Predict the structure.
Amino acid sequence: MLVVAGSMIAAAVWMLVPSLSHQRLQSVHGRSQAGGDAVAEFFGRRRRRTPTRSEYLAIALRTLSSELRAGSTPREALTRAAGQPPLWPNALSAARFGEPIDTGFLADAAQSPEVANALHQLAACWHVGVTRGSGLAVSIERLSLSLRAQQELQTTLRNELAAPRATGRMLAFLPVVGVAMGYLLGADPISWFLGSSAGVLVLAMAVALTFVGALWTRRIVQRVERGLV
């Protein structure tokens, strides 16, 4: 019984400690530090996050603004800033065939829901810049800064919500720790749970309440994310 209890407690600690320390580092520093990365990688808990399409777009907009300021033609600037695969293929086609480039951006927005809002703003910036004949590079640079600020806000929000997520995970594993402590005190909780109708009823209610609590916590965190970003 001691072996079973020790194994259950070790499993709970293994699931909780690396995640809590890693998320705490994120909330304090805004991103993982070298020591936290080493711990998380040792326990196999690190998840490598690939850059989102929105982050690629912010970089592309900064490059586009720089190219326009350097005197590149719109077609050259769009081609150099688009990346591979291009972030705005329809705008590139429009520039190649002499069609309105802002219309191409709108077509790209329809095909990329993740960055549709930013591409709509880019189309508006391009239309105003072409109509007035100046200010295009400045407006695109401001759009890039705005997009970058929004991304930093999302990162901060994810870090602030790390603690509630870790708390929900910890509460979900507390019953496992309780059963292990029962074994350490000399009892046999599993046999009682499975050996009587009352035990089965209590076990079913405990599992159901634990599941509902974890789901409830997750829904609260998701609502906060949708409401603030």
In short: Residues 197-228 form the longest helix (32 residues). The CA atoms of residues 132 and 219 lie 48 Å apart. Confidence is low (pLDDT under 50) at residues 1-6, 15-46. Residues 2-49+158-228 form one domain.
